[in-house]
Fold:
Amino acid sequence: HVVSGYVGNKAAVFPLQLLGLDVDVINSVQFSNHTGYSKGFKGSVMDGDGLNTLLSGLDENGLLEDIQYILTGYIGSATFLAAIRNVVLKVKAGKPNFRYLCDPVLGDNGKFYVPPELVGLMKSDIIPLADIVTPNQFEVEQLTGVSILSLEDAKKASAAFHDLGPPIVFLTSLEFRTEEPSDTLTIFASQRKHSKDTSYHDEVYSIEVPKLQGAFTGTGDLTAALILGHLHQHPDNLKLVMEKVINTMQAVIQRTSEATNACKDPKSAKARELQLIQSKSIIENPPATYEARKIE
Structure:
């Protein structure tokens, strides 16, 4: 959570509420602003004991019983990761329709945001519990060992995630490495569907979108929230969910880019905060500009 700006829960809760979900919020950090500001940030970080204390209070008052979903993002320590594992196991027990969305925030653009030793714990302790995972390209490659150079590689990486447990995989913002710089990004989604016997098939879609000008924080948090919100509304239509999410994201980023360019200092961190509240109508009624393509 940040006091000012739109990352973490500040980017996730508002769209979830707009899409019809009543959200109980736990802030794993309480920062003045996100970490990209030139003069830094102030604040505090919750540890695993702090999370367990909050969860104990919720449990004692029967407030975990009606939980349909859990969404997690940045997990900065092994103790916090262990506490999340415990609550997911507790809430999931006896609830066949419960879904856990894990946005496995590890880093981006070749740089870790968390201690590298958490990669193994994420893969062994958290990913197998998830129903939906939403990694970016760096996180995909760290967790599966598959370098994403093509759609075929994306299919291999998604299958690797499915093999770990999650039936739904969204690979966000893939940039296939070619000799010439690309001006597009690819988003990839896969759902593993099991038959009554032991057989299964993976239903796979992709959307290619143009890169938009600017670099903005909070986009991963917003994407994960939109995925969960639209899966809540359309649990059996991965193609439609993907289209609503990506069209929303492109429109929000476009609005943010235009607002940034209109600022006196467009390179400042404040100028590049997501225009989330201004995009309320977009979140509720996304455009239909981009269509998902089924991959055989």
